[in-house]
Structure formats: structure tokens, C-alpha cells
């Protein structure tokens, strides 16, 4: 039995490249079928071009260098971080039912508990080479001297979207910073969690959380972050 | 060739065969260039570590895409980022001589971003990664029939948006 037009259109929409003989025969079975097939072919060509985004130059070479990249922390750290995150998510889920959105302090604590130790470990003795690239995603930049003190930087989820999470080498030890480009805070809020001390600061664009094991390490970091991370159009 | 050299050679083949498509796939699911590169790098790092477990070279593509999707889910299990970079990608004039084509492609890109993930992801797997409906069903853990319905709906919505945005042609009559 030959394919009816409705069935043919369904197949065209679901799998236009189908090579089934019956489907191929149906494409040429009548002017109506042929016209639908031609329109489908045109749409597919445009769809392919639309999805065919340009790829950064050197991407494949960078991938090939992957084995030479420094190894990540042992899996047990990920397992530990994952278990902490699951526990935190469960707590947040229950808490949200009663109280609405998670306050920024809660987000910072949960975020740091999730991967704070990993970022600190990855940055130990390192200088990050992706600082400007990642900040440029948010139309931000960091002055070169400050960027030279960043040991490791990664993208991270924030309450309103995406931000960056990084560790800075200071004379007194590493300090963690989470930049939240789309999250506004009034600034100056200090809080503590799990033996860590944190401060929220307002930036020209969004906000940042500064986290350290001793409150003394936070001194001066607000000015460091506010002055070194600026909108790209204001950077030198 | 030593086993280590052989391992590097196999890894390089995977990079060349799938790196570009994986990046495009990553860009479409996360919408951010830096994050897409990071996802691809992380995918290949994990692939390098587990390369010896890949016994069937024919399964490499689905193996890599599964790693990438898991990595994305792990990174953004709490929050899906907003699309940013895809919308800023211009269609180069030298490859698209017809202005109408460029407009249509930009409309398509915006429309693809607006598709619900359950429609967008099968479409990406099919068009970007070259998956069959059966392979998509296996990757997403749903039936082939459900995949076909989602793909049909995805194209139907894209066509309707092209029509609504005034793109000429008969594509709207397809669905």
C-alpha cells in the first residue's frame, strides 16, 4: 500500500533524510508530494546553515592538547562535592517551599560548598590563562596585574544566570571570588558559613562574593575586586 | 607504534572527527562561547582518561555526546544559562549571497533558541550530530515514536515562526 500524504508529511517533518525505499518513492509519486519534498529540502538546507555556527580557530588543536593539561583533582573530591551539592539542593528544595527564593548568602554558601575546594586546589601554584576570555563573555575585563594573581577561573551558575568563580593568590593565602554579573546587591554584607567568612560587594555591573577562611583576609579585597574588574568599555 | 603513541593517535582522531560538531552542539545547548569550549575540553579530558574503555570506534560519537550532555547537566543542574553568543553570531555575507537567506537564517537561529529543550535537543542531535531517530531515542532514553513526534513539532514550530516573521516562500505550507 502506498504512503498517504499525511503520513508522508509526518515523515518529512521527523526524518527528511530517511532513505527508506517507500519514502523515496513517495517523494516522486505526484506533483503534490514532490512539491512538499522540495520545500522540505529547502528548509533543511537553511536549517543546516543556521545550525552551522562558526567554530573558534585552533579548537581542534586545543582539544588535542587535552592530555597535556593538568590533571583534575581525584574523583573522590568530585564525589564529595557532589554529595554536598545533593544535600544542599535537597535542603534548598525543602526550604524554598516555605520561604521562596534563596537569598544570596545561601546561594554563596551552597556554591562554595559545592566546588570551592576544587577551585582552590586547581589554582594552587597556577596562574590562570583564561581570565580575560571568560570575563569578556560578560563584557567585563580585569587589569593585567590583578589577572596575574588569579590562579584558576571557571564559569559557574549564579542566581540570575552565569558568572565566574575564581581564586586569587594574596600574600596571606588564597581568597575565593564569585562574580555575579546579573545579580545586584547593596554591598557590605558580611556573613559566615562552615568556618568561612564572606562579604558581598556591588560592582559596576552586578556583584561579587569574596570568601576566605579568615575574616582578616577579606580586608582590602573589596577594593581589589571593585577596581580590577570593570566593564570592558572602561578597561585599558 | 607504542601503546601510548597509539592512544594519542586514537585521541587525535576523535578530536578531528567530532570536535567541531561537539562544539556546535555545546554552543546550541548552552549559548555561550567560553562555556561551550569549556564543555568540549572537559568532555575530551574525560574521554582521554577513559579512552581504553572505548572498544568500538563506531560508538565514539555517542560516547562523546553522552559525556558532554552529562557534563552540561552536572554544571548547570541548578540553572540553565541564558542564550547570549548564538544570537550575536552574524551570518557572513561571503557564504550567504542572498540577503533574504541571511535574514531567514538569523530568524531560524533565534527560533531554534526559543524551542523548548525537548524539541531543540532531538533536532540538534539529528542535524548537527547526524543521529538517526533510533540513535536519538537511545541517547535521550525515550521511544523512537516520541522522538519523531518531537522532531516533527520542532520543524513545525520553526516553520510557523518563519511564516510569522514574514519570510517568503512556501515552507509554511509544509506542516
Automatic annotation (TrEMBL), chain B:
Transmembrane segments: none annotated. Residues 14-78 form the RNA polymerase sigma-70 region domain. GO terms for biological process: DNA-templated transcription initiation. The keyword Coiled coil does not apply. InterPro entries: RNA_pol_sigma-70-like, RNA_pol_sigma-70_dom, RNA_pol_sigma70_r2, RNA_pol_sigma70_r4_t2, RNA_pol_sigma_r2, RNA_pol_sigma_r3/r4-like, WH-like_DNA-bd_sf. Coiled coil: none annotated. One of its GO terms (molecular function) is sigma factor activity. Keywords: Sigma factor, Transcription, Transcription regulation. Residues 106-158 form the RNA polymerase sigma factor 70 region 4 type domain. The keyword DNA damage does not apply. NCBIfam families: PRK12517.1, sigma70-ECF. Belongs to the sigma-70 factor family. ECF subfamily. This is Sigma-70 family RNA polymerase sigma factor. It comes from Elongatibacter sediminis. The lineage of its organism: Bacteria, Pseudomonadati, Pseudomonadota, Gammaproteobacteria, Chromatiales.
